[in-house]
Amino acid sequence: MNSFALSTVRMATSLAGGCLLLSAIAPSAPALNLVPQEEGELNVGLGPSLDLGGYLDTPGFSVESLGFEVSRGKKVFQTQSRLFVDRAGTANSYGGGISFKSTDIGTSDESEAFWLRPVAMIEKNNQLIEQGQLEVGLFRFTFDLPLVSLDLDFFDVESKGTSILKVNGQDYNAAIAEGDDSNIVAFNLQNVSSIELMLGNANTSGVNKNDRSSKTGDGVLLRGTGEVDTASIPEPTAVAGLFLAGAGMGLIRRKRQSV
User: How far apart are the first and last CA of the chain?
Assistant: First the structure.
């Protein structure tokens, strides 16, 4: 079971003179955070973790890395991306040649907030492109329970390409507008069970070439919070009824045994 409970129920029972006292507290809407509040790697289905500590827990959701095509120079790459939690101000080294500096080679968020940081696993001459810091990836997030609302923040979108491609398995195709260096673009979605996101733009050639003047990819970070749909959570009264029925059966057994 994930860390936020499917319902919040407090049971107070007292067997005194055959009397059962029971109280239930209605659930409040649990919040969901897409970003675990510690640095490390998320499991996106690409085999063992590159972090010696293993994968971070993702309560309330799962995430999958999807394949995408990248055109760089005269070569086309088919690739997938890993996904990490990172914040500026700390250096982190992982396996596979991935090493984050305390200050990113691109643009760092100086608020020391935690962000999801994709890493495109594109190799050239047996090394990851841009020293393993190309912050680009295509991911599908699936939520354990539906969300009535999902707020997303995209950090440092400076080129075309970053988009919300699908919501609940249906085409959505909302492009995230590019802006100045260190910008944060906020986006809200309603009634969400799953989303597919393209973060950043790794293309330096071809039709989808990013529009930055430099010949590097446009890296983008992500964070998000959601509100779980309480209608999808079992009613406390239903759970209480199960407790009551079980307690009643226990009393019947005791009476039969005393005869």
Answer: 42
